[in-house]
Every structure is written in C-alpha cells, then in structure tokens.
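dumping the sequnces here before i forget
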Amino acid sequence: MAIHITLNGKPHAVERRMDILSLLETLKVGPASVVVERNRNILHRDMFGSIVLKDGDELELIRFVGGG
Amino acid sequence: MKNLTATQKIRYSRNILVPEIGMTGQQKLLKGRVLVVGAGGLGSPALLYLVCAGVGTIGIVDGDRVELSNLQRQILHTSEDLDDLKTHSAQDKLHRLNPDVSIELYNKPFTAKNGRKLVSGYDFVIEATDNFKAKFLVNDICIQSKVPFCHAGILGMFGQVMTIVPGQGACYRCVFGNIPEPDQVSSTDQVGVLGVVAGTLGTIQAAEAVKFLIGRGKLLLGRLLTFDALNLIFREIELPSPCCEVCRAAKLIQ
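..and the predicted 3d for all of it:
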C-alpha cells in the first residue's frame, strides 16, 4: 500500500515501506548533501537507514548552500 | 535620543513617512551598529541598503581583493576597483552614498581568534560569507556572544536565509550540524551563482537588520526562507527549537 507524505511542501507518495535512506536513493539525492527534517525534527544522518516513513510524515530536504 | 538635523530630515523623509519607522525608528537606525561579514555578493546589496537607510555605524569584515569574476554579482565594486581591497572599495562607494554613516573597516578574514572581538560592540551581524567554515564560525561566535545575526547562502539560482536571535529558535548549527564534506556539496566556483539571487537574499538580510534595529515586525526566527529564482518560489521551512551543542554550551537550551 502506498504511503503518503509531504515532501518539501508537496504531496508525495511512495509505493512501498521504506526508510529515509531508500527515499533519498529513489530521489537521487546524496545523503550527505542534505539535512533531513521530519515533522520538525532534524534527523541524525546515522539514523537515515533506520527511520521508516509513515503516512502523514512531513519531510523537508534542506540543501547546503554555502555561497555568498 | 539625538534629534535629526534638517538635512537628515530630508534625506530620511521616505523612511520617516513609513508608519512602522517614523522619527523614532529613524533615530534608532542612526544609533544602530551593524557588522557585515563579507563584502561580496550578499554583502554588497546589504551594505548599500543599510547605508542608504542611515544605520549609524557599519563594520565591514573582508580580507579579499576585488577580482574580475566578482563583478557579475558584487554590485558594490566596479571595474576600476580590480585588485583593490574590498573593504576600501566598499568604503569609497558607501561614503559617497551617505557620509552620515560611520564605516569601520576590518581588512582581514573572520577567524576563531578575532571573531568574538569583531562582533562585540555591534547590535546585529549580517553573515554574508562565501564558505561553510566561515558560516559555521560566525554562527558559533554570535551564539556564544549572544549577538543576533542573519545568515544567508546562495548557489546557482537558489538561496536561503534565516535570522538567529540566540535562544529564540534554531541556530545555523541546529539545522546544518557540521561543515559538509566538500565532495558532497556544490560550490559557486563549480556551479556559479546568479547576481540577482545575491541581490535578493542580501536585501532580505538588510531588511532583517533594519527590523531588528527599529524593533518592529516579525523576524525570520525559527524559519528558513528558501528562494528558487528559476521557478520564482519562496518557501518557508519551520525549524526545530534550539538543539545543538553550541546552543547548549551557551546555556540557551532549558
């Protein structure tokens, strides 16, 4: 059954049960290139592989932007 | 507070007419002290607007010289300034724009050694640096010294900005943790940056400094504003409460 989350403010459906690391993989986003905020908590990078997405999760992938 | 001179009343008339500023707000701006770290893409528009607005004292920290590849976005500097110190080039333009403003130059990079001394004595800091090391350093020193500041970062056609009043919402480190590995993230040397992105974000930083000084409005606290110039979308990301070791060490976490 699909899991419905909000990804960067937009509805997003994933087709199967998956963790944050797998989601980033499907999105082709390097896990070290973003900060992941889930339901207003910043997730520790080491936990990406063990946190499984749930229906209704609000996820923000925050980019590192170093220019000035 | 000091009364405005007749010339100042004319120069700042369009500020004073704004109900949220008024004569009192203008007096606060004239008394205000803002430190701008970096006189490049973000620092240029921020400095120009702060000086126009009549912020009384402005410090500029930058140890670099003007390079040809800077001029596509760093609007404070011109072709005539090539190889000059950015601080001197900035002072020259800013003084001509508004001789009312006292400009303090620090012709050196912002470091762990000099940072504390640099931010002390200023009401607000604008973090307009161009690298992660400096961004984290400005954050940590402002948190430790309890000096409010506004962070911005730009890359390509994208930018982000957040204001930090120590203890009131997440700081830069609460969100970004640690300096990323260079091979994991892009830099402006690799993917460039559009001048108007620097202009937009640097201008927002100046607006935050002005709001802080006059004590009006809602600052960008606990919120990260992102700007996607390509699709013209501004988005706000709500951030967690202070949660990093620097906020904890500064006793900003209960």
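The first helix of chain A runs from residue 20 to 26.
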